[in-house]
User: Which sequence fits this backbone?
């Protein structure tokens, strides 16, 4: 069975640019969550979506936005990139919202120069 | 404020030397305590979910336990392939997982 997939695997951007990261959940899962993981730290919650609606938002600036599509895939958008946005961005899928067990994808490594 | 703290930060074991990793949590309305394994540069791999104090789950050389304030991940007779970062996360009243910073485990042959 296919797990959570994310694209691209790696990305290099410069300050001020915009980036879009993509995620496809496990088949049958309707909830997607996004996390940011800086080297040496645990993942930090950014957003959770369920049935195309935002169900939770972490302490991130408005430069970060996301959406979920009818097929339950999701995009994370980050505008006006800063050096500090360099991180591993993780997508996790779960059957439902809240704290159902979340299964993570391989992540997208974003480097901002 | 909801918080998860893991200890130790790093642990070096000899192959076959059993030990335990600790996860202390302060979370309003705990709905689940999760353990993940993470290899360098990869996404976390799910290990266990614990829902209530007293619950225990086992998988191969790993056993996770939960009390009202902390969780333990016991590793019995570890092998070098068990080397990884082990992450603990708590799910509370809000729709998010709160992660600790992880324990970096190195098992030497």
Assistant:
């Amino acid at each position: 069975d296919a797990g959570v997939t994310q694209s691209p695997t790696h990305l290099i951007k410069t300050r001020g640019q915009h980036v879009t990261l993509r995620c496809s959940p496990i088949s049958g899962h309707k909830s997607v969550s996004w996390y940011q993981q800086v080297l040496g730290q645990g993942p930090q919650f950014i957003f959770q979506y369920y049935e195309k609606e935002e169900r939770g938002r972490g302490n991130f600036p408005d430069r970060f936005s996301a959406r979920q599509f009818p097929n339950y895939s999701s995009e994370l958008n980050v505008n006006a990139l800063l050096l500090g946005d360099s991180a591993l961005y993780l997508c996790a899928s779960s059957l439902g919202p809240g704290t159902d067990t979340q299964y993570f994808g391989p992540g997208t490594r974003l480097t901002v120069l | 404020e909801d918080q998860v703290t893991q200890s130790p930060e790093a642990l070096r074991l000899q192959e076959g030397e059993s030990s335990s990793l600790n996860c202390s949590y302060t979370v309003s309305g705990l709905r689940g305590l999760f353990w993940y394994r993470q290899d360098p540069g990869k996404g976390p791999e799910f290990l266990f979910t614990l829902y209530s104090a007293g619950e225990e789950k086992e998988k191969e050389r790993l056993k996770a336990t939960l009390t009202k304030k902390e969780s333990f991940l016991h590793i019995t007779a570890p092998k070098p392939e068990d080397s990884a970062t082990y992450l603990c996360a708590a799910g509370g009243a809000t729709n998010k997982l709160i992660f600790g910073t992880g324990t970096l485990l190195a098992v030497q042959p």
Q: What stands out?
A: Chain A touches chain B at residues 4, 6, 33, 35, 40-45, 48, 55-56, 58, 88, 90, 97-99, 101-107, 109 (CB under 8 Å). The two ends of chain A are 37 Å apart (CA to CA). The mean pLDDT of chain A is 95. Chain A is about 0% helix and 50% strand.
